[in-house]
Write a structure and sequence with these properties.
about 170 residues; alpha+beta; seven-stranded mixed sheet; three-stranded antiparallel sheet; 1 helix; about 30% strand; rod-shaped
Length: about 170
Amino acid sequence: MRRQAGFTLIELIACIIILGFIGLGATMVISLGANSFLSARNADNAGTNAQLALERIAIELRDVNGGVGAGGAPQVLAGSSIVYKTTQSTLDGTRTLAYHSANGTMSLTPASGTAYTLIEGVSSCAMSFSGTFRDSALTVSFTLTNAPKGQRFTITVKPRSNTITPVTS
């Protein structure tokens, strides 16, 4: 009997199974690489956005010279907003730095009443004012939803005027 060239059904099935495992492994490697890239990009964007927001907050709070609190001090409301006045003539009036938990943003509202968003994607925030006179300091701390787990961004600013007494409510 002559021998015919070709593959048996068992050889074809074995080949398909082996190619399936190779394809599954390649898919997992590519997927893992893509997820790692996206996570790194999100963390980098979160860090950059947080840095920009912290810089703006520092610029704002550095020139605090009073507020609506007793003795003309900045007022911290429930740890989520600070109402203050600055020494800059271009920033006249009462200003408010606030965290809005409903939409996860931090905003700055000047006397004109138009709020400007400083950063989005904030999952938690805490603001405080401590010390007296030359030792006073304003602290803002927040966590972003797309930052690496548990990473908190914090800035402590000592106002230039430093002649105010803190008031919290």
